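Onboarding guide, step 5: your first structure request.
Type a short instruction followed by the sequence, for example:

Predict the 3D structure of this protein.
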Amino acid sequence: MNISDFIILLLAIFIFVSIICSLKKESFNNHTNYPLLEWELVYEHQSPWQKIEFLQRDEDNTFALVLNNDIQVHSNEYQLSHHLQCSIPIEKYKPKNILILGGGDLIAASVCLKYDFVESVTLVEIDSEVVKFAKENETFQKITNNVSQNKKLKIHIGDAIEFIQNTPNKFDFIIEDVEIDFTKQKSHINKANFLKNCLLKSNIYCGSIPDHSIHKQSPILKQAKNKTPSYLTYNLDTLSQLQFSKSDIKSLKPIIQNHTINICAYDYGDIYGIEAYLLITKN
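The system replies with structure tokens like these:
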């Protein structure tokens, strides 16, 4: 091969690599709704349950943990979302023994263990690869304060839905962040039975509700437009707006009738839209 042929080959390789990189960056732009800025793919792994990607962007110092092409953690939202779901109930009710269902990114665990009165946190996550990423990634080590090294935290790898159904243990507070919709996890248990199992094991429950689970005409969506998010009290029938059926509500009524139902909703805009938090406490 002469020098001119070698140079042509190098140029061809360069052009091919550039095209592939631009396509990758464009795909990241599309699913993260920032078409004018480019993400850098820092980490990529296909677990048995989902595709795990970690993206960073130097232009505005942001990062995102993406699972199956949906943002699960974004640098501009994680503090507020975990304040609403974790900190507000913890500061009000002072639970000592906390169960987190899901939460493999370890952020919820780190928020819980900021409080000295919290004595133990049990976290049940189905995907060990997400936990591994959170333990080893420098950004997540920093934002979780290396919580995986905290002796108060016990991590159980397994199906959170099966865990809450079968565990004989009770907890002061249950945080539910099981993202069934975004993984290959299969479960035949319905939402009402899952919630019932949680309420039988704890007097305080807070679960996340994505916007696709909220009826389009629900006042919960209007509540999400408030600039200052806060919990409002609703009645049992409100669960119908969260895709609980009439039979679901009927089966829940004997357990939940002595509880207070509070909902907080917030619009995270282009990050992932509206998310609501269902806080149920025993009177």
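Each response can be followed by summary notes, for example: The chain has two domains: 3-74, 78-282.
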